[in-house]
Design goal:
Elements (H helix, E strand, L loop, with lengths): L1 H7 L3 H11 L5 E6 L4 H6 L19 E7 L7 H6 L18 H18 L74 H10 L4 H15 L4 H14 L1 H13 L5
Antiparallel strand pairs: 1-2
Helix pairs in contact: 6-8, 7-9, 8-9
């Protein structure tokens, strides 16, 4: 069905969501966080900022913090969707970025892409504008439409009432994050620890789910040269022997000669 809909009705999912909201059947998700102390993060068995790893819910249970509800459709798609500029660098007071290397790159790249797409004054577009406004010395640039600071000075310090910092970072930003280690070039190491979590996840599946995972992998992997199939199978076997076996069986069922 998914393959058929992708060819005959590619907007099915978007329309289904739109119509559900129009009917008042608002989709909602519970939002959870995992909380650990700085010392717990430093002593955990995995690097908690390694995006290829997850922190076990057995070690740090999920804590519900609220619900996210989609309760309104855009009134104008271009104004509220096409011009929206989501970026992880958009933060409210009390939230700060972690040392996660993937996040560190995205803090810059997402916002930079939006500046290229929407212009330097993208935060003046209504959908991106903070509700309470922002007092900064940012001036000029293409499509500056907020009065551009009027006659106020665009520098600090000044003696004429322009925006000024509070000098109270503790009220705005969390405490500093402690990091440890040596900055260096390291040779890539393919270690067994990198296969532990995929194996754990696989064994959380039901027998039917395991078969579907294997079949889904095989449907694409079977189209590759045999030497690639054999190389990839080694990864599945290292994660879990049954995982590798099921994928191998599914590959042969899909016509592979391995």
């Amino acid at each position: 069905d998914a393959a058929r809909l992708a060819g005959t009705d590619p907007n099915y999912a978007t329309r289904d969501l739109f119509n559900a909201i129009e009917r008042g059947e608002y989709p909602a998700w519970r939002v959870y966080v995992q909380v650990m102390t700085e010392q717990e993060a430093l002593s955990y068995k995995y690097n908690v900022f390694d995006v290829t790893k997850t922190v076990s819910q057995k070690d740090f249970p999920l804590q519900e913090v609220g619900r996210m509800v989609l309760n309104r459709n855009p009134e104008n798609y271009f104004a509220e969707v096409e011009q929206a500029a989501f970026a992880p660098s958009n933060m409210v007071p009390g939230i700060a970025p972690s040392p996660d290397r993937m996040l560190q790159a995205r803090l810059f790249s997402y916002a930079d892409a939006h500046r290229y797409r929407l212009g330097a004054n993208l935060h003046q577009i209504p959908i991106n504008r903070p509700i309470n406004g922002a007092n900064t010395h940012h001036r000029d640039g293409f499509m500056a439409v907020n009065g551009n600071g009027g006659a106020a000075p665009n520098y600090w310090p000044n003696s004429f009432g322009g925006p000024h910092p509070t000098n109270k970072p503790a009220q705005v930003y969390p405490k500093n994050v402690r990091v440890e280690g040596t900055a260096a070039r390291h040779a890539f190491a393919d270690v067994d620890a990198d296969y532990e979590q995929p194996g754990i996840l696989y064994n959380m599946f039901s027998d039917d789910e395991k078969n579907r995972v294997a079949a889904n992998i095989a449907s694409s992997l079977s189209q590759t040269p045999e030497f690639i199939q054999r190389r990839q199978l080694k990864h599945f076997y290292r994660a879990d022997k049954d995982y590798g076996h099921r994928v191998e069986v599914a590959l042969k069922a899909a016509g592979s000669k391995i």
